[in-house]
Queue: 4 jobs
Job 1
Amino acid sequence: MDTGTIILAIALIIIMFGMGLSLVKDDFIRLFQHPKAVIVGLVNQIILLPVIAYVLISLLNVETDIAIGIMILAACPGGPTSNLITYLAKGDIGLSISLTTVNSLITIFTIPFVIDFALNQFLEADEMVQINKLQTVIQIFVIVIIPVSLGMALKNAKPIFADKMNKPVKIASGAVLFLVIIGLVIKKKEELIPYLKQAGLTALVLNIATMLVGLATAKIAKLSLAQSRTISIESGIQNGTMAIAIASGVLMNDNYAIAPAVYSLIMFFTGGVIIAFAMNTSSQK
């Protein structure tokens, strides 16, 4: 395991530990109090997101490495960043945290199958890479469930300390993600421009499409404005760090990590647009 992969694993562990610090018992109770909103959110994240990603890749005739990278990203859960954007955009923060948590648990088991599908679809026979699904599940379990559980345990034992740690941990995780992306850009600088042209367009279209579909399905389900906004954000804000870690650490191919890195940058921009729109709408009332 190289230094970059180790740093990625540490970054993801920090992010998931930070998510655990923000979780309380009510986040799980809420799943049963608002089942319709949770179900709509999970359908968007776990089913519709990979389907939309695959359709876009097919329509845009995307290069193989970008196509696989986009599918890896689409298989990953929403990241804790979605909780912050939801809060700033005046969405349902409780629903956001609940969806991020449950989605992170479920995708531990779905990610290997989506990745296997992508590899079979986009690689030629002589390029095929076989992944050990059980080993992949165990790897993701270690870097997701254990740090989340430790964060929750600390929150339960030392709630005041956990609250103080929450913000610094989120800042640290964001800084590490930024450094990882910069490192990837430097490492792949010679191949970057042609990759960026394809990855940028595909990532932007995917991000906007999933947010719009999330909003539409929430409206069809007659959810509240705050819940609809939350599902839209949760559908489009992904755990880019996990996608990059899987690409570089599990599949050992940094080229697959370029699309998730580009998407991670784009989602901050679109998230900012949603926040600005929500704040403007609120100020006009």
Note: The chain has twelve helices and no strands.
Job 2
Amino acid sequence: MFRHSARSTQLMALVSVAVSGCLLAGCSSDSSGSASSSGPLEVWTRSDAVDAKAYQKIFAAFTKKTGIKVDYKPVVDFDKLLQQRAASKNLPDVTINDMGSLGNYQSQGLLEPVDKSAIAGGSDLTDKSWVGATGIDGKYYGVPFSAQAQGMYIRKDWLAKVGKKAPTTWAELLDVAKAFTTKDPDGDGKADTYGILSPGSTTNGYLSWWTSNFVFQAGGEFVGTTGDGKYEATAASDATVAGVKYAEGLYCDSKVVQPSALTMTTGDSYPFFDQGKVGIVLTGPYQFPRFDATPGKDKYEIIPVPKGPAGNTVLAEGENVYLMAGSKKTAEQKKLAEFLITPEAQKIGMTAPEAPVVRLSVNKTVDNAAVYKDDRWKPFEDAYNNSSEPFPSAINYQPIRQDTADALNKLFADCGKDVKGAMATLDNTVQQELKSQGVAK
């Protein structure tokens, strides 16, 4: 995910024109990357060193099965480097990245469309995962690879210490968060614990990512579809405002989030849970290895996210396999995509010892519970299947997520400001962004 606002749309459009022109013209390159028909298949993932180990196992199995070699590159600063490669007219052959990146990449002409009916094993994938691979024109521009939803980690030993049960509603969540903040659940005699962890930084739109869960639970959203392939800003709706007000209250009224939360990314904030300073975390299932180590598997439990006025809907996310435009290895691209959705590859990705890169399998023939042998995954699977909502991936949602995070960060920093008014201002900003993309109602 990269920082991008409506103000940079013109720059992105210029890149798009340059890249699209090159791809349509069949530009060539001397490298062994996508512009060459020889050499290994160049594959990128948005990954750190830990996730890279899992991908290496998957690609090794692919090479063993097909004989096709893979030049694998785990990339942390993914979007910046991808734009550089786009500008140099030499994209990698295949990338695995967030489904939320689809609209941005497709609008730039970086992706090859996918014939769903021609993908071996494509019918075994869930319908919900295919929705996240669909472009604004109704065509598919990716092959689903992994799915996930948010869940709630909570210190069960702290619950016992403060005499509370696991929360099931917003009111109970606030009550527990206050108790964790004020009743010394770690027993050290110091006022140094906090109720709920929040990555409130504007970097990569983190605060929007976190707050969206509460907005969904209030029945709102920042962008709504009109049902005809068009979208409209809904930040000023009563439901969205209600969700934002609840999240703002955690910062401003009850003050149950960790100190300096508005400057923190997820990586900055997670140590507060590791080190026993925060008792509740709303995040995905990929944090099991970390939190099992510290604070320890015996110290916390996973619970369904507490219900707001409209239910307990959480953010759904996932990753797609993208076949990058301009590649001369189209047959190899397709074979890799087909392998990645097989039960064999999905299970390798789910059982990587360091961290799973396939969180919930997109393949309907894979039994998540049987693979993981861990009941803690069930709340995440139930949430994804029954009560989750993704950001709209068909459009370029990245600038909207960034503008939303900027607005929320300012609002939460200036406690006491008019939430409705702030959301009305954001609504105008989002609507202008939708218009600039040509997708506004």
Note: The domain at 6-149+316-390 is CATH 3.40.190.10 (D-Maltodextrin-Binding Protein; domain 2).
Job 3
Amino acid sequence: MASIEKRNNTYYITVSGGFDHNGKRIRHRTKFVPDPGLSPAKQRRELERFVFEFEDKVMSGKSMEGDRITFREFSYIWLNDVARKNLEEPTCVNYKMYLDTKINPYIGDMKLNKIKPHTIIKLYDALIEKGYIRNGVRHDYQYVTLKRVQDVLNGVFKTALRWELIDRNPCDAVKTPKVGKSKEKLKYLDERQIRLFLEALEKEYQAVFREHDRVDDTGKPYHVGTYTIPYKLPLQYIVFFYVALFGGLRRGENITLTWEDIDFDANTISINKATGKGVTGQYIKETKTRNSNRVVTVPNEVIRLLKRLKFEQNKQRIAMGKDWIETLDEDGNPYHFVYTQADGQQMYIDTPSQRFTKLIKDYNKTVEREEDKLPQISLHGLRHTMATLLIAEGMEISTVSGRLGHADISTTLDIYTHFLKERDKTASKKLEKYLQKGV
């Protein structure tokens, strides 16, 4: 039962919410100020409705006050009720890990409204001082990790502010400490390495199978010695890497391409969807940002390879007949993916990355001189390669940004700042010749 106390024009409501673990009664308090423009009878009805709703929230466990709920309690409410409804599952899993291992051990037991800017600063100080242990060795946290901590904290406090549990977001007054390297150096292929990479796509390699035991059809065991089988990279992986390199597509965009997205006459590829990966498997989703929906023009060779792949895929689909499995959308319509598994289903999103890493390793085994080996970059490095090539060729940054599908030009400038500075230094050196005497 709620108790109501009136002071001047304000009503103070108290509701008992049971007992805590020490046997102490838990009381929830709030206040209500009626609309002075209403008649006394209507004000009374508004008060009764407010009290009823508040009492219902307390009894159902939905009542929250910033001076009563801990950061740990509210952080998990935020994670389940807000983050999981607006972010992808892998991001939420990552955020929970940050809460469990980097944030809640330090501030989890503090009341939500007691956390101030200096509390966040002390949290960063503790993380920087303690670092983390990997394989028995202590390592320092890098800026990118502390920035992710800030992102999680900011998400929690923004929601608490919006729900009127706190008066201000303490993160607004705190900047992420600049420790270690703020950004990793971009990894991409230079012009010479691009030519080597394209040659690597066509080379023949040797798959080595170590000696092992087998059992024949009759159940009799036998031993097989070490042997090698020559192999070449399947066409669809060659196409995938060409599209990544010359189209600049993200992995999730590339793996989701359908034949309807390819305009063979205009030499264009339409990017309008992507693939995400959650705990239950991969799924089709919208592209990363509004500007990620785009149409990019690609060189003739990319289109030629796509035509070859479509021809080969059609032959395989016809040969398999009813065993060919189409991946269906929510309305039951087939997707007609460009990259498929052997049975026609969409290729798994991690497969191209694995094949890319293996390709570079296999190629480097065939090369003797270190300078002729390819750098072990990630698949995403092909996207960086396209961008750096275009910038080096003097392409307008707005055009590069458009091909990449960045949210805005500032994103492109931020990612490629170091490369742009290096190009500027090169330009300055070229200008120096005009200052030399006798020129």
Note: The first strand starts at residue 3 and ends at 7.
Job 4
Amino acid sequence: MTTQAPGPTLTVDELASRAGVTVRTVRFYSTRGLLPPPVIGPRRVGHYGPEHLSRLALIEELQHQGMTLSAIERYLDALPDDLSPHDLAIHRALVAGWAPEPAQEFAREELEQRAGRALSDSDVARLAAMNVLRETGEGYRVDLALLRLGVALLDVPIARETILAARQVLTEHTRSAAHELTRLFRDEVWGPFTEGEDDPERVESMKALSAHMQPMVVQALVTAFQRSLKEELRAAFVSGNESGE
């Protein structure tokens, strides 16, 4: 038997307190269309429920990934309109399972410790151009997932413009691959998994499934890319040698 979610019983102050945000934030999200409108009760007091809490938690998770409000708005617009609070919790579990390590803020000394070497102003500017870090006034906000790669590229004799062009190519094509993989996962895995009666263990089950799938998908992408790159490089150099003969 499907469990009905409790009706909207929270005032805006109670919702903000439960979600760990300010009332101003709740109202701002509502004006942006990120939250559905409250149910208006006696004395025209708005009441909120589990769906609003689940949406706020999902918005918070997406922000942790670095998404802008405009991107979050497009993301939420793409979700089915009839998602229950439990379905939104499952969706958040999926998002959290695939989220990269969040950026952290460091002073210059801490940044160099993380980098494993001293960094000149030119090095820092180069890392900033690669979106590895950005200056915040009191330090640097660092994408730790990119720091090791960025530091390694500091010693590679390749022009910064070439590195940025390569990054653009990788970003565009990996985004396309991520979009298609997400669509497949949503339609073939998440959709069937969430059909039927509510199960209080579904969220934990989906977290476990996501945790198992992530390393497999990443390894498959890396392997496919390595093979494709090897074939492309071989074809390019063979073609170049033949034309030079």
Note: The chain has a mean pLDDT of 78.
